[in-house]
Structure formats: C-alpha cells, structure tokens
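Notebook entry, structure prediction.
Reason for the run: the old model in the group folder had no record of what sequence produced it. Starting over properly, with the input documented here first.
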Amino acid sequence: MTALNEGWFTEVFQDQGTAFSLKVKRKLHEERSQFQTLEIYETETFGNLMVLDGCVMLTSRDNFLYHEMMTHPALFTHKAPKKVVIIGGGDCGTLREVLRHPGVEEAWQVEIDERVTRLSEKYFPELCEANEDPRANFFFGDGIQWMRDIEPSSVDIIIVDSTDPVGPAEGLFAVDFYRDCMLALRDGGILVQQSESPLLHTETIIKDIHADMRKAGFDHVQTLPFPQPVYPTGWWSCTMAGKDKPLQYFREADASERPFVTRYYNEGIHKAALAQPQFMIDALEARPARRAYD
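New structure, fully documented this time:
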C-alpha cells in the first residue's frame, strides 16, 4: 500500500502497522511493464527512488549497503570465484559490485523484467557502470527456468537478488529452486539469497530459507544482517549457503587489501555480520528463547 500526499511518498506496511516516507520533488517516470508497475521519483535527500508495484526497491543514497553486502562477503568467502550468476538484480548494482573483483571471468544477470534495467540505465547510471564490461552477460527471462537448464557444476557463486517472496519471485524461495542451484554450483560454490528483515522475518521467511536450503543439500547456512534505511525496519539481511565448506572463514587479507573502493563493506564489517543476535540464534537453531531471569 502506498500514498503520495503533500509531496511525500509513503510505503505502508499494513500487516506490521508501520510505514516509511521520503519527501519527493517530482515523479520522473511511471509505466506498466509486462510484469509490474515501475515508478521513479526524485527525492529531496535520498536521490532517485525506484518503486516496483508500490514497494521501495532502491534509492541513490543507500543502495550501496545492500549491493555490497549481497556480493563481497560471498566473493571473499569463496576461494577463487570465476563465474557468478545473478538472478534478478535488474538495477545492475549487484553486477557492478561483482565485476569489481578482477578474478571474476564471467558474470550473468538473469532478470525477468528488462524494463528495470533500461530505467536503471537512465535514472541510476552509476549502478550500470559495468554493463559494458566484456565479462558482463545479460539474459532477460525466467530465472527459475534458466537455473533449471544451466550446465551442472558450472558456476561458482549464485546471487538471488530478488524482490519479496510474492508473485514472480515466490519460486525463488523454494526447495526445488535451491536444488537446481546446488546442482549448478561447482565444489566450494556459494548461494546467496536476499532474506528480508531479521526483526520481522526471522521466525518465518529466514527460518524457512535455512530449512529449505538444508533440504536442498546445503550443509552450511549463514544469515548476515546489515542496515538498510529504506526497507521495513531499516534492517535487512542476506543468507549464504555453502555447498561443502563452512562460511565462517573468508579471505581476510584479500578483503583488507581489496583493489577497489567500497563505502560499507570491509573485513571488519564482514566479521561483524557473521555474529548473530541472540534472538536469531534461538530461532534458527531451534532453541527456546532465554527467560529474562535465567
């Protein structure tokens, strides 16, 4: 549910009894694609804002938090990622961060709605800086089917940069899809899934993601929380699944000496994101919550 009143864009989270607002200068674009309604606004303090079906997707000001955490922890955890596949990610910010890694030889962005990418090229050109990189490849179509058809053991990292688990994205949060990812990954491969708000969704979506990834054969699953002001509660997460290696260890020296600039990610942030709040530990390890007087 959204509203635009007196120069404010407001996304209302009716079932949670909360809302988030940004003051806007003007609407830059609106259209209905084959899949969804896309809106672009110019805001007073957060740069441009992209909205899909009434839900805030990203802003110029804070998208770096999401894009850096969806990519760099996984790429520095893998010993030497060469081929990366992004399912979704039509704004191209995740692709840009992946291709900052000089060792990556091939990256695919598989996005169902080409209009998201074309509008990003116009209104978020900074996110599309890597689109002309010779390592970048684009496929506009069904990511679920694409993963089903890919050659087994051909990918090092799969990043599921999707919208909420409703509508077209619902199938990206399913055991069958995770099984296809498992088959596509090489030894040491890593799957990354955007996994919603720790505060709102640990007992539901995040817990289900952990269970489904394990059912699909991933023995190592780790959720990494990070701040994201424009998303519900201002606190978001991604969940990594390792095909055959623990995820608590990463290439710290390489992360520290990374040959590119980041605004949020560094080796200290990576270590901190591996630490779980107690309520998440209690929920995800199926342990009862501690009573206040214990």
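Summary: The radius of gyration is 19 Å.
The old model has been moved to the deprecated folder.
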